[in-house]
Amino acid sequence: MMGEEGPPSLEYIQAKDLFPQKELVKEEESLQVPFTVLQGEGVEYLGHANDAVIAISNYRLHIKFKDSVINVPLRMMESVECRDMFQLHIVCKDSKVIRCHFSTFKQCQEWLKRLTRAIARPAKPEDLFAFAYHAWCLGVCADEEDQHAHLCRPGDHVRYRFQMELARMGFDLQNVWRVSDINSNYKLCTSYPQKLLVPVWITDKELENVASFRSWKRIPVVVYRHLRNGAVIARCSQPEISWWGWRNADDEYLVTSIAKACALNPGAKAANGTAQNGTSEGNEACDTDFDSSLTACSGVENAGAPQKLLILDARSYTAAVANRAKGGGCECEEYYPNCEVVFMGMANIHAIRNSFQYLRAVCSQMPDPSNWLSALESTKWLQHLSVMLKAAVLVSNAVDREGRPVLIHCSDGWDRTPQIVALAKILLDPYYRTMEGFQVLVESDWLDFGHKFGDRCGHQEKVEDQNEQCPVFLQWLDAVHQLLKQFPCLFEFNEAFLVKLVQHTYSCLYGTFLGNNPFEREMHNIYKRTCSVWSLLRAGNKNFHNLLYMASSEQVLHPVCHVRALHLWTAVYLPASSPCPLGEEGMELYLPSGSQSQEFSGRSLDRLPKTRSMDDLLSACDSSSPLTRTSSDPNLNNHCQEVRVSLEPRYASTDGSELLLEEGSAVAVRETQKMMTGFLFPLM
Question: Does 289 reside within a domain?
Fold first, then answer.
């Protein structure tokens, strides 16, 4: 924490004035803050719980027991209540449940009031810790621009993503496609990016007419092009048909024009592309887990004529028709020539929120409940994931195998639509399986196209409807985790990368996921006033590298979508809700590293035991007891001890102002071991 010794720079003075720290309230003068604070973090309350020291800062709740610790950002907490008179029961947005006991009812009530105030909705965006953290970080260095570029900004691949993606995907911007500036300064649609890709012959006047017909003016625009066959993926919101059955000629023209543009810009097909996709990959894909004529393993037809465009509505047909009562609806195939409409039956945010609440309740039960499997099934969480994966596979197969353009929407186009679009792009394009490509994917399909992170994550100010909160992005990350499980060698990042992204989606330490749309982020100047989460999850951070990654693979992924093939994401939903022992993988679970992330010590991974007797390896590393069976590798027991030692936190010894941890090390070790086990003994 910065004190009087801080540099007398203008940035430091501004940070101190703009984000002043409150005076610390101690229950005892002898108490000491049990952790090293971040820049801009100030501890406000410090006291005792049962056999523990408890502290609340402007960023986190910290509870330190004799041999364990609980550490969670305030914005990660969804609710807190008093139970059994002496217990604080804290429910977190990522499904964790925290319990803390006090010796008296009065003391429990006092800490309940303090924590309730601390986790209340912010009155203004600047009340979120990301702004104070960034301002105080800049105060450390007099050279603002260099410090900001080094610590806070994402790379050029994120900053110039739109131009780079257009070039990478080979769009013909001279004859077939054009970039429209109709949304410059967000004058057409605040939840869309400023530059929109449409067929070259579509005028801005026509786009304005289409906007009047689409919910929230979210018109059909192209977001992906298949390099080999030129088929594209487009996205939008529902048409406003209403009970009157309205039509819009410009909308019908734009949708059919997307298919015509694909035929004019067909892509560079490899000579053996059709043969390869029709045999080896085709046999694999046709045996996924659902039947559809849309996924028939046929080669790409003659690109001279427009392919039949697939309109994928993420909702059920019943839900789409019901939306007509509220002015929405779905496309009628009769009015959209050469188009086919398919409904996927994905649940809305209210059903997903309920499913997640059931999942959280099940995961917070006592260990090893007798009805675990039936309780997990009743949450329907894995069933919802299965439907999402099926929708993405449907899109992927239509684009890759049949060369068909696809238009995707749900109701508003900012929840289920980005789930399907982004997942399909991961299946189709190996670039999005790299760390840089994944960052571009999240920025483009989630942030640029207006997923309402502020409302969905519960950190938006002035929210009238609490039912807007829903773990939509978390659910999508879970689906990506399922792909990582099925294809452990085809992703550059590991599970620790995804787990850390879950945590900082809610932590509000970084500004990446603040606000509901790009217009709000520009209005509050969030990009320049906060740090980017990609500065932590950068490609150079070896903590998040998948050691099994095969960079040369160009494979299109065809996952198995059966519920029985999916796994509960234990690293997120089932870490111990009780305090975790110091030095083990749960230690400082949410705490970010300092400005210079520590590189993952390769000592433990370099010495993975070269043995095929790995049945008890995971339990050996997670448990404090030694192996109970004889290992074929005499160094196995020593290796597990080395893993445990390597996960202990390390503290800065220079100025004491930053806490430097082995960020993501525990999950990286565990995930590598899991993937190695699956590699040696593949599931049939």
Answer: no
